[in-house]
Amino acid sequence: MGEIEGKGSLYSRIRHRFICKQSEAKEFAGTYLIVKRLKSRIETIYKNPFKLETASLTLQFKGECLQKEINNLSAFVGVSLDYVLDKKTPYMPSTGEKGMILLEKVLDENSDVYILDEPEMGMGSSFINSLIIPKLNDLSKSFKIVIVSTHNANVAVRTLPYVSIYREHNNGEYFTFTGNPFSDKLKEISDRCPDKNWTDVSMHVLEGGKEAFYERKRIYES
């Protein structure tokens, strides 16, 4: 299915088994009680093949099968899905890890347009920076359209967007600005507001302001 950082390759494994004492309802997609009852009738008939009531039990079994549209043994086979690391160790991926695998799969698909809504949610910065940002940049270089809604400064800035869209709420009204880091401008689309500086707005919205940005820089350096 994909790689989980620091843990290895994740594989999905489908298991099939005939209904038994260890079977669970989730293996039968809503038919567990029906199949369990039919299995009980089969066992009763098998254990008492020469009793008079066996004929009526057989007719009841046949009637229930027809009613539930069961006409082969596949109805008695439960199906379950689990996950393993490197084909051996059982493992249940976290919500964030599932998102990472799904996002990686989507970005590897061949498409003309990719629309991502906050792809950084529940994911580590190292994964975003080492895998997702390079993939977004590669798609852009391949002339694909990539639309990303994000609060992550690395995604918004390091991908060098051709177009940035910024929404601002002021005095009960919304204003929409467009621009990019190359012109370092953001222009309100209806010309109701003066232009803004792309760097200043990005620094304020994504980094928490210049002071926060440079304070982090000083902490890292020290």
CATH topology of the largest domain: Rossmann fold
**Helical stretch tally:** 7
Share of residues in strands: 25-35%
Average pLDDT score: 90
3D shape:
elongated
* Class inferred from helices and paired strands: alpha+beta
Return Rg in Å: 29 Å
CATH superfamily of the largest domain: P-loop containing nucleotide triphosphate hydrolases
Specify the biggest β-sheet. Answer: 4 strands, antiparallel
Helix content: 40-55%
> Number of DSSP strands?
10
* CATH class call of the largest domain: Alpha Beta
> How many domains?
2
Low-confidence spans: none
Give the helices and strands as they follow along the chain.
EEHHEEHEHEHEEEEHH
At CATH's second level, what is the architecture of the largest domain?
3-Layer(aba) Sandwich
Would you give an account of this structure?
The chain is α+β, with helices and mostly antiparallel strands and 222 residues long. It has 2 domains: 11-81, no CATH class; 95-221, Rossmann fold, CATH 3.40.50.300. It has 7 helices and 10 strands. The strands form 3 sheets. The chain has a 4-stranded antiparallel sheet with strand order 1-2-3-4, covered by helices on one side. Helix 1 runs antiparallel to helix 2 (53-67) and helix 3 packs parallel to helix 4 (125-141). The protein is elongated and about 95 Å long. The mean pLDDT is 90.
